[in-house]
Hints:
Blueprint: H1 3-9, E1 15-18, H2 25-31, E2 38-45, E3 51-57, H3 64-71, E4 76-78, H4 81-88, E5 109-113, E6 122-124, E7 131-135, H5 140-146, E8 150-154
Parallel strand pairs: 3-5, 5-8
Antiparallel strand pairs: 1-7, 2-3, 2-4, 6-7
Amino acid sequence: xxxxxTLDEIGITYRLLDHPPVYTVAESMEHMPGKFPVxxxxxxxxxxxxxxxxxxxGDERLDTKKVQVLTGCKKLQFAKPDVLLATLGVEPGSxxxxxxxxxxxxxxxxxxxxxxxxxxxxxxxxxxxxxTVFISGKDIPxxxxxxxxxxxxxxx
Length: 156
């Protein structure tokens, strides 16, 4: 699915920035000083099939217990590379909200750090570490609703 065509179709305004390759949140912030850092994590229930995609402030550690309580999942852990590839179509370190366009992402529950929705502009890479697509925080639910994904807010 074409990201930019999808954003245009659902009425999300975006801005594209090209930059040298980045592999971590810290590296991305070197090219985007003053921006709100974001990280995207895919979690899987250890003894179950539930998948949870967390979009959160990039310079903080994830409290998986809070996510477990919110989602009703037991013992969440980071998804293994084969699960990332099958579900989001990306390798570890490459997941972003836009990975949810992948055909395997349909059953994922999304948890969003409430602070993101208040941000004027947030950057997510389009599965390329040499570009960042900026959208408004208020457009995150618009994007997820267009994908018919279940999502919940959490103060992380």
